Amino acid sequence: MIEDFVPDRPVPSEHVWMHGHDLGVTVAENYRAFAEDARGRSPLYESLAGAVAGDEAILSFLGALPPEKRQPNLLFAAARYLRGEPASLDRIRELVSQDPDVLAGVMLARRTQTNEAARCATLLPALAQLPPPLALIEVGASAGLTLLIDRYSYDYAGRRIAGLDPLAPTLRCEPRGHVPLPDRVPEITWRAGLDLNPLDVASDDDVRWLSCLVWPGEGDRSERLAAAVATARRDPPVVHRGDLLTDLPALAALAPADATLVVFHSAVLAYVTPEDRQQFAAIVRGLRAVWLANEAPGVVPGLAIPSYQGAPFVLARDGGTPLALADGHGTWLQWLQ
Ligand SMILES: C[S@@+](CC[C@H](N)C(=O)[O-])C[C@H]1O[C@@H](n2cnc3c(N)ncnc32)[C@H](O)[C@@H]1O
């Protein structure tokens, strides 16, 4: 369910920092960097990104788009959205030569907003340590699938935790170290999301876009997405349209006073500039809230991470305490304390 939180104010354009999109290098170099990222995750996207990096016609098409709209994941998802199958070099070439306006239209209208329910397995142990009941605000919530932490069930290498929705998927996560696994999901009395562009789980078109963002070859992510969407459709989370830099305090003011307010985000701050991350950190610190960040190392301002051992994500509390290292898609969690 989407609610316009600040309907009279225009939503700013997409920020410019993201994987495969470094404004300091050429488009071809970005696609080559993306190919490196995709290695081991998606052989198809690895070879496709490498091929695009050497294709003058596609590079010229991309060069005519605004800089923040040239990134590989957006191009590949848009091609898939338009052609109904995983992107290939031939399909992208065909779109670029025959339907460039249609392809550009999708890329201009859509954003990279992957929503991965399995990241809830990263957040659950930290949330379960807080005094219940909880009031949750997710910043950068996309379609709100990561707000449904208490609905999913969990399986941490055989240690099962039942969620509240018996039809919801079971999220599997390998615990490493002494992960403080709870006996039950935490009590959540209130939840709300905030996003520049909320996706609507009730919209088949939005859900199709979410499915196009899943990289081909990434195991069971597509099935998990479908199951998480079905869960959300049974009782949709509210995601407000707004900017993390301007709209968080007003949303926090709506939270019930008798619950522990938690502001959390995962895979979001990499999309905003370093200056805006600093500003966001100051805003969250000004709230009476627990702050949980599940982001790539170096993204949360001032967070010292002694040794992140190449982990994609670091789970941190209140911007200063690293709690755990985590897989970017919640498949493993290594507790640090
Ligand atoms: C990669 S998605 C992550 C979604 C979800 N947190 C998850 O872990 O699955 C990043 C989301 O952040 C949102 N976002 C980016 N910049 C934002 C901003 N300045 N204010 C609010 N949301 C923002 C995007 O619209 C997108 O939906």
Question: Which short descriptors sum up this protein?
Answer:
globular, alpha/beta, binds S-adenosylmethionine, 337 residues, 11 helices, three-stranded mixed beta sheet, ten-stranded mixed beta sheet
**Ligands (ions, cofactors included):** S-adenosylmethionine
Beta strand count: 13
Biggest sheet record: 10 strands, mixed
Order of helices and strands: EHHHHHHHEEEEEEHHEHEHEEEE
Question: Helix share of residues?
Answer: 25-40%
Based on Cα principal axes, name the global outline: globular
Mean pLDDT: 92
Secondary structure tally, helices: 11
Q: Beta-strand percentage?
A: 15-25%
Assign the structural class, choosing from mainly alpha, mainly beta, alpha/beta, alpha+beta, or little secondary structure: alpha/beta
Q: Tell me the Rg in angstroms.
A: 19 Å
**Poorly predicted spans:** 4-18
| Cα distance spanning the termini | 38 Å
Adjacency order of strands in the biggest sheet: 1-8-7-2-9-10-11-12-13-6
